[in-house]
């Protein structure tokens, strides 16, 4: 067990790990009312007699551990504390059954308003990094990955899309219920639900588009490159590691697109040609971030650097600027910005700083310049396939890069990852 994440010390409980979340949700768009029942199957990591779950803005009304009606529990502003029936030893299993409800809303965090968010005519989830507790009780840690079953009931006319593969649709008491299952390990921040007046259609045998009719034509055009993009990335990173590939386009404009496990959401404003790099970015997160995952937020460059590098790979593969050209132009942009950030530990307030993203991608380009194209290609694919659905850290990356490329990259990686000064453009003598 590691302790609390220093970037989000109030989130999560390191004393247990969740194995499965089984969520039954009913959501009314008009009144923004969410009623939920969460069955959380978990295992203790240390000896403990109580556990906490993150739950924000919603009230629990009933809590049971292993079906016990006498379960003692209390709820504060951020946490639901539940007493276990006895002191449990490490490795013991328990099951929580929690009923809860309320008007879900984003939480205000140092990263802005995140979590469940109402749209003009629907709702979305922006979970990263600590938004998950605004819609279900969870152990909100990036290193606690679980399987999910999510059933969402909505009023007729609305369609819910959630993390996982759609396994059932049914009519229940005047509501439309759609059930999703995800058997790949998923962190709470990568679970999501989107509700809107969507219609779904297949983009290919394994890709689904959900959007409102008004966005359909533009969305079809915007996501037409997706099958080619998928082929390019599968050849670079190995087989697509998710059970679903679902794209949601909201009728609202969104600030940024968001990735979740097997799922990504784009705004109505992300359907133009300039947004194609964002499509590549979010798709690449299915390998880097969602499959190969970070245990600590301080390692966020591993998600974002790879996703940005994938944008450059797609640009080159689709006839745009080459990787070398993209690297050169982003290096020039970074050189003009303050060099006061260490990307292997940017600090919580700067973990989403664009310099973490771009310098992360340039770090990969530096590995390529040192190792050569062939060894780098082997490394890229091996990193994604050998850590498929596993947790990694920056030190794993350092060791793996040197081992797979057969080069001692320690010095180069220290310059790129651990020092604020921007090293020269890789590949330039
Ligand atoms: Zn990203």
From TrEMBL:
What does the note under cofactor report?
Answer: Binds 1 zinc ion per subunit.
* Pfam families per UniProt: Peptidase_M1, Peptidase_M1_N
List, separated by semicolons, the cofactors it needs: Zn(2+)
Q: Which GO terms describe its biological process?
A: proteolysis
Q: What is its EC number?
A: 3.4.11.2
**Localization per record:** Cytoplasm
Q: Which reaction does it catalyse?
A: Release of an N-terminal amino acid, Xaa-|-Yaa- from a peptide, amide or arylamide. Xaa is preferably Ala, but may be most amino acids including Pro (slow action). When a terminal hydrophobic residue is followed by a prolyl residue, the two may be released as an intact Xaa-Pro dipeptide
Indicate the enzyme's highest-level EC class: hydrolase
UniProt keyword annotations, A-Z: Cytoplasm, Hydrolase, Metal-binding, Metalloprotease, Protease, Zinc
Q: Please report the stretch or stretches of sequence annotated as the Aminopeptidase N-like N-terminal domain.
A: 19-190
Residues of the Peptidase M1 membrane alanine aminopeptidase domain: 239-416
List the record's Gene Ontology CC terms alphabetically. cytoplasm
- Protein residues bound to Zn(2+): 281, 285, 304
Query: What family does the entry list?
Result: Belongs to the peptidase M1 family.
Q: What is this protein called?
A: Aminopeptidase N
Origin species: Microbacterium ulmi
